[in-house]
């Protein structure tokens, strides 16, 4: 997380020119949150910047050579058979077969079964 407290009194300036419509929206948002426009802009930009940095940092996972070897070995192992997943697959297949059988019956005998 970025430390927002400065240890000295140095300040930098950021400025932007925006359309009247954008200014009105930002002004309203600042008013609703009880902040000045400047404070609202700084806090919003800081949060967006931190989110962007965090998202970028999550794109890469740093691992040691040993960790990478362990991960590769695990990925190459056969999958462990999970009985709950097997049951779910069996139920899915049964349901899919039932739906297929019903659809075939409807096509063969008509919607009412009178034919």
Instruction: Give the domain tally.
Output: 2
**Main sheet record:** none
Helix-strand string: HHHH
- What is the count of β-strands? 0
Class computed from helices, strands and strand pairing: mainly alpha
Organism: Acinetobacter indicus CIP 110367
Keywords: Toxin-antitoxin system
Family: Belongs to the TacA antitoxin family.
Protein name: DUF1778 domain-containing protein
Helix-strand layout with pairing:
Blueprint: H1 20-33, H2 37-57, H3 65-76, H4 83-109
Helix pairs in contact: 1-2
Short summary of the structure?
This is DUF1778 domain-containing protein. 64% of the residues lie in helices and 0% in strands.
Structure description:
With 115 residues, the chain is mainly α. The protein is 64% helix and 0% strand. It contains 4 helices and no strands. The chain has helices at residues 20-33, 37-57, 65-76, 83-109. It starts with 19 loop residues before the first helix and ends in a 6-residue tail after the last helix. One of its GO terms (biological process) is regulation of DNA-templated transcription. Keywords: Toxin-antitoxin system. This is DUF1778 domain-containing protein. Belongs to the TacA antitoxin family.
């Amino acid at each position: 997380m970025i430390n927002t407290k400065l240890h000295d009194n140095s300040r930098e300036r950021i400025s932007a020119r925006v359309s009247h419509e954008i200014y009105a929206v930002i002004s309203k948002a600042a008013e609703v949150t009880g902040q000045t426009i400047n404070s609202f802009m700084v806090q919003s930009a800081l949060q967006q910047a931190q989110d962007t940095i965090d998202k970028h940092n999550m794109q890469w996972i740093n691992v040691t050579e040993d960790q990478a070897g362990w991960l590769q070995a695990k990925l190459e192992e056969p999958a462990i058979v999970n009985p709950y997943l097997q049951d779910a697959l069996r139920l899915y297949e049964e349901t899919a077969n039932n739906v297929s059988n019903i659809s075939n019956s409807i096509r063969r005998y008509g919607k009412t079964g009178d034919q």
